[in-house]
């Protein structure tokens, strides 16, 4: 029992009740944290293997490019083909955005360790919005270009 005059005891008691978490929930949260840590390591390893195979295995490279094209068509069925026509140099505008915002690992280990803090997930909503806007601008630009006399 804590009296109302014992502020510290009352605070501890209220914190206990407010922040109480059953052991099942605590274990579940711990499992999620472990899973999250494992998935990131697995994803990093998988990216490394894919990059290595892409560089040295032509059949893998060809299959990967075909898979990515099929995936792009399946995931973005609403993106009209003319959105992929508008180019900024060698990239389409959409490719340019995707290339600039993808996660990259610096080659230098010191820089990688101390300064590699960018995570695409932190900017996902922004990039999706940017892609929508770039898609609209690309389509409208190509419409205007196609209407221009040659």
Strand and helix layout:
Blueprint: H1 7-18, H2 23-56, H3 58-75, E1 87-88, E2 91-92, H4 93-101, H5 109-115, H6 120-147
Antiparallel strand pairs: 1-2
Helix pairs in contact: 2-3, 4-6
Rg (CA only): 25 Å
Instruction: Give me the secondary-structure category.
Output: mainly alpha
- Count of DSSP strands: 2
Strand content: under 5%
Span of the ends, CA to CA: 88 Å
Portion of residues within helices: over 70%
Low-confidence region ranges: none
What is the helix/strand order? HHHEEHHH
Strand order of the largest sheet: 1-2
Number of helices, where a helix is a run of at least 4 consecutive DSSP H or I residues: 6
Main sheet summary: 2 strands, antiparallel
Q: Using the alpha-carbon principal axes, give the shape.
A: elongated
Let me know the average pLDDT: 83
Features:
mainly alpha; 150 residues
What does this structure look like?
- By secondary structure, this protein is an all-alpha fold.
- Helix 2 crosses helix 3.
- The chain is 72% helix and 3% strand.
- A hairpin with a 2-residue loop joins strand 1 and strand 2.
- The mean pLDDT is 83.
- It has a two-stranded antiparallel ribbon.
- The termini are far apart.
- The radius of gyration is 25 Å and the shape is elongated.
- The protein contains 6 helices and 2 strands, in the order αααββααα.
């Amino acid at each position: 029992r804590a009296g109302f005059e014992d502020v510290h005891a009352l605070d501890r008691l209220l914190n206990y009740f407010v922040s109480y978490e059953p052991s099942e929930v605590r274990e579940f949260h711990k499992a999620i944290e472990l899973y999250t840590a494992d998935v990131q390591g697995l994803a990093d390893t998988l990216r490394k293997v894919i990059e290595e195979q892409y560089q040295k295995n032509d059949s893998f490279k060809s299959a990967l490019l075909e898979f990515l094209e099929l995936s792009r068509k399946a995931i973005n069925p609403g993106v009209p083909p003319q959105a992929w026509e508008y180019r900024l140099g060698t990239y389409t505008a959409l490719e340019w955005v995707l290339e600039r915002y993808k996660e990259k690992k610096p080659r230098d280990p010191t820089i990688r360790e101390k300064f590699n803090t960018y995570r695409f997930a932190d900017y996902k909503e922004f990039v999706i919005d940017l892609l929508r806007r770039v898609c609209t601008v690309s389509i409208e630009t190509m419409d205007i270009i196609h209407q221009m006399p040659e």
